[in-house]
Amino acid sequence: MSNAFEPQFTDAPVQEHSSGTNKGCLIGCLVAGGLFVGAILCAGVGIYMLASKAVDTYTSTTPAKLETVEYTEEEMAALKSRVESFREKLNAGETPEEDLELTADDINAWIATDENLKGKFFVEIKDDQVHGDVSLPLDGMPMGEGRYFNGSGTFDVSMEGGVLIVTMQQAEVNGDPVPESVMQGFRSENLANEIYKKPENAEFMRKFEDIRIEDNRFILRVKRDSAEEAPPAATEDDMQKPPA
């Protein structure tokens, strides 16, 4: 069952599934990981759809071999406890004492706890940018039977006016760079706009002052001045504006 700490993606090209580790959202309670993996996934499938007449060029008959990160039971328990404590305080209307900071290893270790996601996504943080690799079966897509989408992308992340901005800067599909004509469109599109299409997600995002990559970590910085009037929730029209 999802909750306020688990933004849901609309029109996602994968089925949600429940397990003891992910509790119904894309990769569990790790909001940052869910956002960025979701952005990578949506961008990747979008490129595939644009290139549907060149299946042999943009897809492969074999999945890419992606790295995995696996924590010990003690390390995973500590990570889950930290995330769950943060979530519970937000849901209770309290302000967590500390912001939530997540390393790429944290997110990859969480991915590795779900057999449906393990080996399909891998996230790195380099020079305060997010780099993501994906390898996804395309059996449910036209001309995708027995083929895989293997791609990677580099993303800028920021929050402007209370709106999370995720833009793809560079991408490769099946080992080849995405054409610049396609990349120009991605660079001007906010890949995080889907999460604002549900009012509960927009309300959730209002809890944060900032979400960004800093010191090679995902930083989820909550608002701490309770006397400050919260800005109005971002609307879908706001999401359609190109990133600055």
List keywords for this structure.
disordered N terminus; single chain; alpha+beta; 5-stranded antiparallel beta sheet; globular; 244 residues; 25% strand; 30% helix
Overall description:
The chain is α+β, with helices and mostly antiparallel strands and 244 residues long. The longest helix has 20 residues, at 31-50. The chain has seven helices and nine strands, in the order E-H-H-H-E-H-E-E-E-E-E-H-H-E-E-H. The strands form two sheets. A five-stranded antiparallel sheet has the order 3-4-5-6-7. It has a three-stranded antiparallel sheet with strand order 2-9-8. A hairpin with a 2-residue loop joins strand 5 and strand 6.
Short description:
This protein has seven helices and nine strands, in the order βαααβαβββββααββα. It has 244 residues and is an alpha+beta fold. It is globular, with a radius of gyration of 18 Å.
Enumerate the spans where pLDDT stays under 50 for 5 or more consecutive residues. Answer: 1-32, 227-231
Give a count of the beta strands, DSSP E runs of length 2 or more. Answer: 9
Summarize the amount of helix as a percent range. 25-40%
Series of secondary-structure elements, N-terminal to C-terminal = EHHHEHEEEEEHHEEH
Structural class: alpha+beta
- Spatial extent as radius of gyration: 18 Å
| Major beta sheet, strand line-up | 3-4-5-6-7
Distance between the termini: 36 Å
Arithmetic mean pLDDT: 75
Major β-sheet annotation: 5 strands, antiparallel
**Looking at the structure, what is the overall shape?**
globular
Q: Percent of residues in beta strands? A: 25-35%
Number of helical segments with 4 or more residues? 7
